[in-house]
């Protein structure tokens, strides 16, 4: 008896499923979007604070100037591309260059459209605190790093010097670099940017030396001044080699112009919001100002954006369609 | 390597030497052998030793004796990477996605959307009123007040919208988990064969860290709410299934016989007797499902579940402990409210108090609707922003103060930085190096011996196979790194846990004081305290261990003190009458009597510590946890999935090695 | 002293039941009920063996092994061993034995709550073992209801709903079944407690609920499985009287399982005494007490107050001339205890009179002989 019911229910369910045609999950947006009929935009926010500054200002302006409802979702970089292509987020405002993803989604599948430049240039490198560089100026050349390895030792680095790396989502060749440049260092992954920042600040408070993977623009420089260690110069030959086999990289990181990407459908149907996001463009100084308000002064994203918007109408007026 | 290999080598190879040396004194040797075979533990070891004597030289000669031999590994990253690419390329075209996964995903999104819309339509006043009235009907005035206060606090902290999103996700996830779990439990409860097949699977699933569940759903569904709900369902359904099956199977045989003697059909028996009689277990299942779903809903923010978890996760990225706490408190409150309500519903059935009454329910519905309409009429659906209380600032100040004073300042005992350095240098490193220096077959033998001594040959086999699978997956050294972190943290947890549990078991007052602290520690999302822990202990394995200890300690304290308190009063009394000191009572009566609970505490400590050590990948714990985080962050699912599989194997191995033979002992936790 | 009365006396149990020692189920062996009403349950050569491949045991050489040997050889346990008996309409048939004697298994076999291994069971001539599940359900719903030692009440239902449960299963409408259940609750003396839950009742009250539930279906036979064993002695006494009263009022056929001899003697019309799965003796209380079939039964009934069970039939001697008309008259069913009272009060011997015919005489001496246990056959006297 019971079995009959189960079979019947199963058949009905199957009918219901197949009878209604296909369900393309790449076209399913967030369940929280468009509730109560509001026009809504979903922005991807990466975990680092620069990206949050972009999103904060964009959110503020979309809500207060253009009347949208904005959702932000924190997703890591590569998954964010996937989410963007599926329309679960409408825009990524700061991308540090993902060639594979760009080829797959922008060129092949055409589900993502480029959204122009953010106006900020990004650079990755190795940094030491300024107080350490001042005391030992020669640490700024990678050839001298081994000399300081013993000073940069920590419990985690196991007898070698510690090179502090951050979130696994970041672009990094550090393990290859350490090996190929013959450095007596151990790459220690902090696992998240938050952990890395906390550790850097703790070092700075005790004025201990450290060597860390870091990037510009970043608000932390205002609080903990750091100086970049010069690595072998970045060349196109080195880049080609690195693209073919990442473990052979032996030169510095490139300087990247940060880009925005929009969901392809959103660029057509997104109306003013899409145009606004495409025109969104500001400088490193602007971004750092907001980022510091958020991360250091602990203002809410909304409050930080409000302050910046109030002081720089000349910048954002250009973006409003 | 050479230093640590020697003792391990002798330890393993000593037993097989015993029978070989027998010819010098055959008689005595024979007697001793017979004595050995009489002792079951010794017999098991002897069998293992003989097996080892035969197999080890062969294995060592073929593949060497160091770390796991490369010849025995299988590299899955190629096929997994291709599978990942294929899925992404075909997700919008292949029938499997269009007609199957697409519907699952679409159904989940539609359901969450519907619940969320209803919650928003009710407005904050409607939701608060509805929840309060519901709690009042089900669990009485006290819980109702708790509910009202909790919702008010969620609003005051400025977390109303995220709370509603989490609630919407939870409603759908819990409903699905309960439905799936109940169906599985029904099947297992009614059929012995299904029960036997399902039980080890469910037991194992409960021992696995939540993080391990994220990768497979992301592989198929990408990032978003739908995969988050699915991961939650997979994580939260097993306790429902277990308890449903147990409830159905433990129905009073006498009652069932009576029902059968009255001529009930199978369906009547199920509906009128077995299910109502299993009510307590069913509600306990719902209760546990809710708690697990809530903890998973937070972790799932890593794969795009919105809501409170996402707020915690975002606050984490700006090292904003205050904001993380502001989002963490509503999670704890939701957990408390749901726990108390479902627990009261379960207890109500026993005391015979009726929770229903159609008019009462109508009243609840009517009053909720009235409040919601009133809110709508006053156009006060959104939580008024002016009421918000900002706690982030003061909390951050407090945290900074604490870190400043604990980091290096304490005279005599050193600061947390020193502790972290010592813990890493003196405990973790030697342990890790020691484990990694063990010859691979030695590790397998060790695990086999441990698991067999505690359990049966089946558990031993499972444990050995799980460990071997780790080697085959090519994650041998990484897993042993994780294992060393788990073992060290478990040891600290147990020492602290027993030290706290003993006084707690003796004084009801201490127990009462401790209870809310334990509740909070257990339900507070680990993300919230990961960052202050980093500030105190620096990046690395030490903060992961600290977080793991905080998380696992409550369960250990609770189980241990309960076990100690349940010790037979008659036995205690007789010990006292013989003049035993309280120390003697503890050592000679309470601890031996509480042995099953102590074993359970060890098992739980291992399971819980493992789950946090994995999350510790976010704060520099490295090893398997880092690989999962890396896989998620880089979209490199091959790395993530293999690491996830290794975590599963490690969890399985640890669970089997520490699991007392009686599997049923874990039901209560 | 012992020669005059005893074995040869007319109307002795041996004569009623048949010749020789009253072993097993002698009256049932030929499948007939000698006199009286027809059989409701008729059980023949019933076996119940627990264990793997149980069906090979009955009738084979395995059956002759001791329980230990059988367990070792075939991993089987015999619970019911070749049992035959009839339960007559309107009687209270008691199955008595110590724990492990197979009596509870036996009663469960009657409605196939436990599937018998071999043998036949008939209810009103209809084969129970051959019934399909529908017919069997019908049997359990309407014809045989059971009362259990541990009550088997549903803790989540009220008293009234528990009593109505059997009717609910039969598909009786809500109003009708509640009315009927209310009636039953009143009948067992629980009026006013309809809204309580079983856990709020005492053990005796709970068993009354169990009884009411069984009665509600108005079954042909009531099966009691040690219904009062879990109760306090005083309450047990009450409940036994309740059963006797019910039987007296309604004349319903009952099968009653107990390990308590005094209970068996109090409620039973006939008693089957079981040991090791076998029926050792089957007969009226007077036969069991007065003429134990073997040493086991004798041992069992040793402490029974014989004067309460045995009747004057057993104590009387032939009337001497002149005695047939004098002295107080007693019916043959009068217990020895009552006869002693009469004789003591009048100071003279009493006549046993049936239908105006004097069957014999009881006097001080013959009555005392019964009390002292000197009445039965030579073995007992020796």
Structure, described:
- The complex is a heterotrimer of chains A (321), B (669) and C (382).
- With 321 residues, chain A is an alpha/beta fold.
- In chain A, 42% of the residues lie in helices and 20% in strands.
- In chain A, strands 1, 2, 3, 4, 5, 6, 7, 8 and 9 form a nine-stranded mixed β-sheet that branches.
- The mean pLDDT of chain A is 80.
- Chain B is an all-alpha fold and 669 residues long.
- In chain B, 81% of the residues lie in helices and 0% in strands.
- Chain B has 29 helices and no strands.
- The longest helix of chain B is centred in the first third of the chain and has 45 residues, at 95-139.
- Residues 1-25 and 662-669 of chain B have low confidence and may be disordered.
- Chain C has a six-stranded mixed β-sheet, with helices on both faces. In chain C, strands 2-1-4-5 form a four-stranded antiparallel β-sheet.
- In chain C, strand 7 (221-225), helix 10 (233-250) and strand 8 form a beta-alpha-beta unit.
- Chain C is globular, with a radius of gyration of 23 Å.
- Chains in contact: A-B, B-C.
- Chain B binds chain C through residues 252, 254-265, 268, 272-273, 276-277, 279, 349, 352, and chain C through 108, 111, 113, 136-142, 145-146, 148-157, 165-166, 168-170, 197, 199-200, 210, 213, 217, 223.
């Amino acid at each position: 008896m019971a079995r009959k019911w189960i079979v019947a229910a199963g058949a009905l369910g199957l009918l219901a499923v197949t009878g209604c045609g296909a369900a393309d999950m790449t076209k399913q947006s967030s369940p929280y979007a468009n509730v109560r009929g509001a026009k809504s935009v979903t922005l991807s926010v990466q975990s680092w604070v620069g990206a949050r500054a972009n999103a904060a200002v964009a959110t503020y302006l979309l809500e207060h100037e253009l009347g949208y409802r904005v959702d932000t979702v924190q997703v890591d970089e590569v998954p964010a591309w996937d989410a963007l292509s599926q329309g679960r987020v409408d825009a990524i405002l700061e991308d540090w260059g993902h060639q594979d993803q760009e080829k797959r989604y922008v060129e092949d599948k055409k589900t993502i459209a480029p959204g122009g430049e953010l106006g900020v240039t990004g650079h990755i490198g190795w940094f030491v605190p300024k107080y350490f560089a001042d005391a030992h100026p020669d640490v700024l050349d990678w050839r001298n790093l081994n000399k300081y390895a013993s000073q940069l030792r920590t419990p985690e680095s196991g007898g070698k010097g510690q090179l502090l790396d951050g979130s696994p989502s970041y672009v990094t060749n550090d393990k290859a670099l350490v090996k190929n440049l013959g450095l007596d260092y151990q790459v220690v992954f902090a696992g998240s940017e938050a952990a890395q920042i906390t550790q850097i600040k703790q070092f700075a408070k005790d004025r201990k030396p450290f060597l860390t993977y870091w990037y510009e623009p970043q608000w932390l420089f205002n609080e903990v001044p750091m100086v970049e260690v010069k690595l072998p110069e970045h060349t196109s030959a080195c880049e080609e080699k690195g693209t073919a086999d990442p473990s052979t990289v032996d030169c510095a990181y490139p300087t990247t112009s940060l880009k925005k990407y929009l969901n392809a459908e959103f660029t057509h149907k997104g109306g003013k919001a899409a145009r606004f996001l495409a025109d969104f463009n500001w400088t490193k100084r602007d971004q750092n100002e907001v980022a510091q308000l958020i991360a250091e002064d602990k203002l809410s994203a909304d409050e930080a954006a409000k302050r910046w918007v109030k002081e720089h109408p000349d910048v954002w007026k250009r973006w409003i369609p | 390597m050479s230093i640590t290999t020697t003792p391990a080598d002798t330890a393993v190879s000593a037993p097989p030497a015993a029978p070989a040396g027998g010819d010098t004194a055959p008689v005595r040797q024979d007697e001793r052998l017979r004595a050995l075979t009489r002792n079951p533990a010794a017999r098991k070891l002897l069998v293992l030793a003989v097996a080892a004597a035969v197999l080890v030289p062969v294995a060592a000669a073929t593949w060497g004796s160091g770390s796991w031999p490369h010849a025995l590994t299988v590299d899955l990253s190629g096929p997994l990477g291709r599978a990942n690419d294929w899925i992404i390329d075909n997700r919008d075209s292949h029938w499997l996605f269009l007609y199957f996964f697409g519907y699952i995903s679409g159904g989940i999104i539609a359901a969450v959307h519907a619940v969320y819309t209803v919650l928003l339509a009710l407005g904050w006043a409607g939701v608060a009123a509805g929840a309060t009235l519901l709690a009042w009907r089900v669990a009485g005035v006290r819980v109702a007040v708790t509910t009202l206060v909790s919702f008010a606090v969620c609003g005051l902290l400025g977390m109303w919208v995220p709370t509603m999103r989490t609630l919407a996700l939870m409603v759908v996830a819990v409903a699905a988990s309960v439905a799936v779990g109940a169906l599985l439990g029904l099947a297992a409860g009614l059929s012995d064969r299904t029960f036997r097949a399902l039980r080890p699977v469910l037991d194992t699933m409960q021992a696995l860290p939540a993080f391990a569940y994220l990768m497979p759903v992301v592989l198929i569904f990408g990032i978003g709410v739908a995969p988050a709900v699915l991961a939650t369902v997979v994580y939260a359904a097993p306790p429902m299934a277990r308890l449903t099956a147990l409830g159905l199977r433990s129905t009073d045989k006498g009652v069932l016989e009576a029902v059968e003697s009255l001529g009930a059909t199978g369906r009547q028996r199920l509906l009128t007797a077995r299910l109502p009689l299993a009510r307590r277990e069913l509600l306990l299942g719902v209760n546990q499902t809710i708690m697990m779903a809530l903890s998973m809903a937070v972790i799932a923010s890593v794969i795009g579940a919105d809501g409170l978890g996402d707020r915690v996760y975002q606050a984490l990225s700006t090292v904003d402990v205050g904001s993380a706490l502001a989002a963490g408190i509503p999670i704890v409150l939701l957990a408390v409210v749901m726990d108390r309500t479902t627990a009261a519903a379960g207890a109500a059935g026993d005391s015979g108090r009726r929770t229903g009454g159609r008019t009462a329910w109508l009243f609840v519905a009517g009053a909720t609707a009235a409040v919601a309409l009133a809110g709508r009429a006053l156009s006060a659906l959104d939580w008024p922003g002016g009421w918000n209380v900002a706690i982030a600032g003061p909390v951050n100040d407090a945290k900074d103060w604490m870190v400043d004073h604990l980091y290096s300042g304490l005279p005599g005992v050193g600061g947390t930085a020193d502790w972290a350095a010592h813990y890493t240098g003196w405990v973790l490193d030697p342990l890790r190096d020691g484990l990694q220096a063990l010859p691979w077959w030695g590790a397998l033998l060790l695990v086999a011996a441990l698991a067999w001594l505690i359990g049966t040959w089946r558990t031993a086999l499972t444990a050995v196979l799980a460990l071997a699978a780790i080697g085959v997956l090519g994650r041998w050294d990484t897993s042993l790194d994780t294992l060393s972190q788990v073992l060290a943290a478990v040891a600290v947890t147990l020492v602290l846990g027993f030290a706290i549990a003993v006084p707690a078991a003796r004084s009801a007052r201490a127990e009462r004081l401790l209870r809310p602290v334990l509740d909070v520690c257990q339900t507070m999302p680990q993300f919230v305290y990961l960052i202050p822990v980093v500030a105190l202990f620096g990046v690395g394995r030490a903060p992961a261990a600290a977080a793991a200890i905080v998380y696992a300690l409550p369960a250990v304290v609770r189980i241990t003190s309960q076990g100690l308190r349940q010790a037979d009063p008659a036995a205690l009394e007789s010990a006292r009458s013989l003049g035993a000191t309280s120390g003697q009572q503890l050592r000679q009566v309470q601890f031996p009597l509480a042995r099953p609970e102590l074993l359970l505490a060890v098992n739980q400590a291992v399971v819980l510590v493992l789950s946090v050590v994995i999350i510790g990948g976010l704060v520099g714990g490295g090893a398997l946890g880092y690989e999962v985080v890396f896989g998620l962050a880089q979209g490199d699912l091959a790395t993530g999935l293999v690491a996830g599989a290794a975590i599963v194997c490690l969890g399985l191995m640890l669970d089997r090695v520490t699991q007392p033979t009686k599997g049923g002992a874990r039901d209560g936790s | 002293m012992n020669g005059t009365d005893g074995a040869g006396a007319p109307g002795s149990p041996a004569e009623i039941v048949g010749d020789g020692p009253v072993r097993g189920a002698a009256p049932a062996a030929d499948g007939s009920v000698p006199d009286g009403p027809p059989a409701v349950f008729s059980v023949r050569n019933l076996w119940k063996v627990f264990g793997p491949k149980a069906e090979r045991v009955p009738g084979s050489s395995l059956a002759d092994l001791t329980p230990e040997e059988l367990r070792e050889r075939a991993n089987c346990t015999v619970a019911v061993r070749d049992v035959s008996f009839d339960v007559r309409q309107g009687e209270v048939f008691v199955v008595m034995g110590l724990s492990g004697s197979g009596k509870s298994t036996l009663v469960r076999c009657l409605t196939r709550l436990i599937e018998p291994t071999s043998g036949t069971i008939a209810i009103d001539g209809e084969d129970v073992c051959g019934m399909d599940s529908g017919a069997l359900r019908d049997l359990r719903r309407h014809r045989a209801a059971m009362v259990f030692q541990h009550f088997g009440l549903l803790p989540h239902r009220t008293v009234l709903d528990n009593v109505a449960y059997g009717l609910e299963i039969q598909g009786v409408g809500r109003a009708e079944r509640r009315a009927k259940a209310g009636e039953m609750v009143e009948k067992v003396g629980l009026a006013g407690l309809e809204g309580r839950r079983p856990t709020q009742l005492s053990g005796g009250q709970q068993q009354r609920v169990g009884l009411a539930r069984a009665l509600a279906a108005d079954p042909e036979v009531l099966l009691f499985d040690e219904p009062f064993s879990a109760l306090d002695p005083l309450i047990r006494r009450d409940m036994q009287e309740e059963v006797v009263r019910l039987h007296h009022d309604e004349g319903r056929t009952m099968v009653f399982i107990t390990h308590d001899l005094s209970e068996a003697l109090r409620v039973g019309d006939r008693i089957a005494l079981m040991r090791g799965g076998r029926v050792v003796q089957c007969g009226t209380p007077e036969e069991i007490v007065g003429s134990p079939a073997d040493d086991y039964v004798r041992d069992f009934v040793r402490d029974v107050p014989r004067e309460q069970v045995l009747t004057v039939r057993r104590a009387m001697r032939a009337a001497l001339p002149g005695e047939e008309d004098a002295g107080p008259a007693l019916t043959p069913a009068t217990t020895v205890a009552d006869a002693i009272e009469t004789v003591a009060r009048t100071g003279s011997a009493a006549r046993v009179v049936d239908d105006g015919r004097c069957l014999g005489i009881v006097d001080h001496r013959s009555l005392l002989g019964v009390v002292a246990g000197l009445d039965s056959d030579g073995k007992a006297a020796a």
